[in-house]
Amino acid sequence: MQETRRQFIKGMAIGAAALALPVAGRSWAAQADAVRYGGSAWLGHYPAWLAIQAGYFKAENLEVGWESFGTTSARVSALLSGNIDMAVTAAPAALAVMSRGSRHFAIIGVPENFGRVEGLIVRSQVARLEDLKGKKVGVTFASSAHLLVLNLLDQAGLKAGKDVTVLNVPAPELPAAFQSGQIDAAAAWTPQFNAIRAMPDAKVLVDDTSFSLYKEYGVTPGPDVLVARRAFLDKNPEAVKRFLKAYFRANEQLKTQPDATVAALTELTKLSPADQLEMVKGADWYTAAEQGALLAPGSKYIDGLQKLAEMMVRYDQIDKAPPVREWVDAAYL
Question: Which residues form the SsuA/THI5-like domain (predicted)?
């Protein structure tokens, strides 16, 4: 059965109830300069991890605790239930919660654009999207890659389920499915993206830069956004400003000194230094100076997120498109 973001939201409600319980052995300082961050090994969390490891938060008199989550739903649930204060999440997950009217969080920053490390990988005989007709495409449902596939098929005049068989394959299983021939094409993000494209007879047909919203708005199918609990923002405005100062200091390093970030990041990702450097260089890291233009009223980027929400409605991922600007708060930059 296809998993939609409606099911994702239900799962978060259950997860939030569980996460609201006390966690044995966890102790957070009850003070304004303590921040609880929810992360994972995904590249969207590199700035926060790097800022911790490099001491950038400490330089701003902040104690930032790192809480790892295996899934987006668990991380967003923890944010909504108050178990963490800040996190990076894929915009579709945030949009799904917004569509239900939740006002418990705000978008306060944009870490990066990862358009070149997610895409559709095919076998050599597939030269264009139209050649996918009659073939099997593997992708993880309710993901950014899933939105990419649906949008690409639209662009090619093909319909999922009629012209192309779209199969729900968990991200870690995509390389094996492609290698064994169970699927003819795979839509994936790094590191599975890197693993599949390195296989014999495999090539990247398109990446996220072919997404219909990318050229006009600079928005990929699942852009990352930095979000924070509104209650935390209201109570600790100065701490949030210091957090963002340190956070974007790390982003500046990722952008201008990628080699210098590798040693700290491999501790998180367990990648080889060469693969780690490729991951860092594969994203466009936004600096503090760029945040105002990204989040300002009337910005193309927020317009793009609104269009993304409308697209999710069209693809039956959410019931209605929320007014995205009402969740954007650039006051702390």
Answer: 45-260
